[in-house]
Amino acid sequence: MPYFQSDGVSLYYESTGEGPPIIFICPPAMGGATFFEQQKQLKNHYQVITFDPRGNGKSSDGITGDYTIYDWTEDVLALADHLKLEKVITCGYSMGGLPAQEFAISYPERTAGVILISSFSEVSTFSLSSKIKAGEMVGHSDLLELLAAGLSISHTGLGSKKHKKKIFKSVNSSNSLLTKKLYRNGRYYRSTERLSSIQCPVALIYGNLDFLILPYQRLFEKRLAHPVSIKIKGVAHQVPTQSAYEVNSVIRSLKNTMAH
Length: 260
Fold this sequence. Notes:
Blueprint: E1 3-6, E2 9-16, E3 21-25, H1 33-39, E4 47-51, H2 69-82, E5 88-93, H3 97-106, E6 111-117, H4 126-138, H5 144-156, H6 161-172, H7 176-188, E7 202-207, H8 214-223, E8 228-232, H9 239-242, H10 244-253, H11 255-258
Parallel strand pairs: 3-4, 3-5, 5-6, 6-7, 7-8
Antiparallel strand pairs: 1-2, 2-4
């Protein structure tokens, strides 16, 4: 199985396809299975790369101290270095969008583009803060199975039982302490004032029913130079899994824009 090293931690990744490299970054605990099961259909257009963050899926925990958004970002850089990729497109879903945008801010010379799916640059609404706090609480080891059941069902619905099982297994086997810390650090993360430094192409993908996150789309549009905003009809937050066909179509359409 393929692994790479980041600050002494062994992290699992998967890569398939050819073309501009795109690193998909999942929310805490969900693991690379969130994306790879469906976004690997992009392999004829992109090099599709996913990985399990520290303490998730098949990755090791490392030293279970703090795990910040900046540590997460450094793991993305380590993966790009391991694969000898000069520039990458970072695609982050929900809280996975935080290291995706932080990578573009910290390493502009390594960033070809950014795709943010149902994401945010700060937590400044009561509704989003409350939801993340619930994740921190349920991330406790005694309730991890409940979190795994909730995330696997909400992301697959009546869809693939195989995909549901993979997400459940990834969440249920995650390090509860690291998961809780990542949720907490995501709640306090803020890149809003630094977004104007991102000069590469940025695409924002949202579900038109995602009332929890839609206020943050407007915030991105005010701070970024020329973002492309796309709303997927009939879906709330779980866009990449519930509307995989539509998301993949959008990402394919961005290839020429983000490959330069």
